[in-house]
Write a structure and sequence with these properties.
The protein starts with a helix and ends in a 6-residue tail after the last strand. By secondary structure, the protein is mainly alpha-helical. Helix 5 runs parallel beside helix 8. The chain has one domain.
């Protein structure tokens, strides 16, 4: 069984510690969530746009909890009865992250939600989670975060998405000792981006009549990035931290 409210409580405690607020979150389960391909049938925090798509009849059919925009987590009917694992835990954390962003008037971007997801996962490595018969190791968190790199890369590639630069900083700050798979996947992404940028620059130079190709810059890879257990990341007016506190 998955106690969704217990996971939300973990997120609320972390948010409050960072000076952020999270009002009461209502959890409703209904087949309607399957209309959202991105949710994968797991959970979805209803923002104003998705809230308008909920049929009025569904809201009036004596729901388990009220339907409130920005404060309702919609989950698949079978979700609460499934076995809790890293993936399901992180689904609820990510969607609760969206609720926290909206409650605190922080740009509700995927990059910002990824930052919150990463930091909650890191904060709770190896710790028994109150209200849940569930815990996970650094190695399990590492495997999960590595599996999410495809989604992280999409946000990293959107230079104009709020929080994309800070997401990059969070990933750069991960400890290679604790999360070697994730750090390696991130470095692969950086290498791919470096080569792609070099190829684009070379093509542009050739189009300008220059036969000489410009070698891509490699300075970043000559720098030794310090291994940090955690990193403060400000995402609200540059003074509100969503980063885990150093241990």
């Amino acid at each position: 069984m998955i106690n969704v409210q217990a996971i939300i409580a973990v997120c609320r405690k972390s948010a409050n510690y960072k000076g952020l607020q999270l009002p009461e979150i209502y959890v409703n389960n209904d087949e309607f969530i399957r209309r959202y391909a991105e949710s994968g049938g797991g959970a979805l925090c209803l923002n104003p746009k998705s809230f308008k798509m909920i049929p009025l009849q569904l809201m009036l059919e004596e729901p388990l909890n009220p339907w409130v925009s920005e404060r309702t987590l919609l989950v698949a009917p079978e979700f609460p009865t499934e076995t809790l694992d890293m993936h399901r835990f992180a689904i609820v954390v990510h969607e609760t992250g969206h609720a926290i962003l909206m409650a605190n008037k922080i740009p509700n971007s995927e990059a910002h939600a990824y930052i919150f997801e990463i930091q909650i996962i890191i904060e709770n490595c190896g710790n028994p989670i109150p209200g849940l018969e569930f815990n996970y190791s650094d190695a399990e968190a590492d495997t999960y975060l590595q599996s999410r790199m495809g989604q992280f890369r999409i946000s990293l590639g959107k230079g104009n998405e709020a929080g994309s630069g800070k997401l990059r900083s969070v990933l750069e700050g991960l400890s290679e000792l604790r999360f070697p798979k994730t750090v390696a996947a991130f470095k692969d992404y950086l290498e791919f981006s470096r080569r792609a940028a070099g190829n684009i620059a070379a093509r542009e130079e050739n189009l300008g009549g220059q036969a000489k190709q410009t070698a891509p810059q490699t300075g970043f890879f000559n720098m030794k990035v310090p291994l940090r257990e955690s990193q403060e990341i400000n995402i609200k007016n540059e003074d509100t931290s969503l980063g885990p506190k150093g241990k």
